[in-house]
Amino acid sequence: MSLLAQSRAVFLKDLLLAARGGSRLSGVLFFATMTLLLFSFATEPDPESMRRHAAGYLWLALLLSSLLSLGESFRAEVEDEALEGLRLLPVDPRALFYGKALSNTLFLVGLSLVLLPLSLGLFGAEVKSSPGLLLAFLLLGTAGLAAPGSLYAAMTSRARGQDLLLPLLLFPLVVPVLIASVKGTGLCFSADPMDQRGALLQVLTVFDLIYWSVCGLLFGKVIEE
Amino acid sequence: MAATCPALEATNLARGYGDRWAVSGINLRLATGRSLLLAGPNGSGKTTLLRLLATTLQPNEGRLQVLGKNPTDDAMAARRPIALLTHRTQLYNELTALENLEVSARLLGLKPDKQRSTALLERVGLSGRGQHRARTFSAGMRKRLAFARILLQDPQIVLLDEPYGQLDPSGFGFVDKLVEELRRQGKTLVLSTHLLDRAAPTLDSGLILKGGRMAWVGPARDLPAAYAHETHP
Question: How far does B221 lie from chain A, in Å, by closest CA?
Fold first, then answer.
């Protein structure tokens, strides 16, 4: 069975689990919405300042919410030691990673598409680039969070203090992705006189390639006892 | 080559937690198609040893070979022929019984087949429960579902940790029948239980663990008497 077919099987399993765990979806969505609302309350009521920082608040809400969704995505694997069962099936550990990271990316992309109109409304921003370009920033940015996030969520899933460990490990690693995503999304909300969007997309693509390949290789070591 | 290799061969296997050895000095050789009854008081290291043999736990010392393959060289290849049933059933609680089997089938590279899965559920005494979520099952039913997954996997080496645990009397009969069937099929079997009189007559050899070390080795039929002697000298 090829790596692709195995990854697809893991991805479908995770989609099924996500569909069954309705509380995970609604819980993360509620948390993300509340975070955006709190940012809007905490900001000075200056329309220009709010507009300028809309992309930053959107990505911070996504980053904080990703902690919940990434942790939840591994709860089902450790609850009854299902992960040990998976390890005993002839499944390539990289397939476990790619299936899991892909489903986490899909979840975060979906979440970002829900949060986008909300943040546009709350902070008075508007999309000035093509929707495809904005979608590319959301996709590449969330993929850059999901890959190391899936690796670290697996690493901390059986550890005491998982909720503390995951952000401690994840946040420093995703700083470059976060900066490029905030900057790129911000330029989609405004003019781009220096024509930086393309370069930022390239930066995100490079980081994604590094994260997805390195994390895929390390995942096997991480899930071993 | 692999056919002449023992199914499981452990040499001086040891595993510790912190500064305590859970098992140490384990030397065993189990030929293909043979069966081993594993006994010992609570905390004697039975589950740790089974996990080491399943290769899901790495030894701190010693060496393990599964059908001639070293798990440290290629864990996937070494694990391929092994199935392990533990106290935890390794199921997805939010999925139905049928979905749990279908997920395993896909990952095993088999085509999802509802008829095959339904037949397996019937075989383990879960007819009519296919659409019920694993979360709604009793502990005994969950164990039966875990057995169905092992049957789907069709492994060469079956490791059963307390297979009678949480089952009702009809479940005991089911496990006895299953063990007999696996033996007839030439599977290599390691079974850990406290129901020694029940398991001993059907298995080949026996091993008693005490404090993580091998305290007795011999024919399985002699194990109940040896166990009484070892634990209440």
Answer: 31
Which one is predicted more confidently, B176 or A21?
B176
User: For position B4, what pLDDT does the model report?
Assistant: 73
Which is it for the CA torsion B181, B184, B188, B194, positive or negative? positive
Tell me the residues of chain B between 147 and 206 that have a Cβ less than 8 Å away from chain A. 149, 153
Band of pLDDT at residue B229, cut at 50, 70 and 90: confident
Domain range for A21 = 3-223
**Helix, strand or coil for residue B145?**
helix
Residues of chain B contacting residue A79, judged by C-beta atoms under 8 Å apart:
93
Give the chain A residue nearest B135 (alpha carbons). Answer: A80
Of A6, A80, A220, the CB nearest to B107: A6
> How many domains, chain A?
1
Give the pLDDT score at B73: 87
- For β-strands B82-85 and B157-161, DSSP reports them as parallel
The pTM (predicted TM-score) of the whole model is: 0.88
Q: Which of A121-125, A199-203, B109-113 has the lowest mean pLDDT?
A: B109-113
Q: Find the angle CA(A215)-CA(A217)-CA(A218) to the nearest 5 degrees.
A: 65
Per-residue CA distances from A214 to A74, A92, A220 (Å): 20, 15, 11
Statement: residue B77 has pLDDT above 90: no
Which structure tokens are listed for B173?
Answer: 């009969």
Of B90, B99, B149, the CB nearest to A80: B90
Q: What is the pLDDT of residue B3?
A: 52
Amino acid at site B204: D
| CB within 8 Å: B86 and A82 | no
Tens-digit pLDDT profile for residues B162-209: 999 888 888 899 999 999 999 999 999 999 999 999 999 999 999 999
Q: Which of B56, B92, B106 sits opposite A82 (nearest CB)?
A: B92
Structure token digits, residue B51: 């996990």
Cα torsion through A83, A88, A92, A97, rounded to 10: 0
What the block records as the tokens of A134 is 């904005």
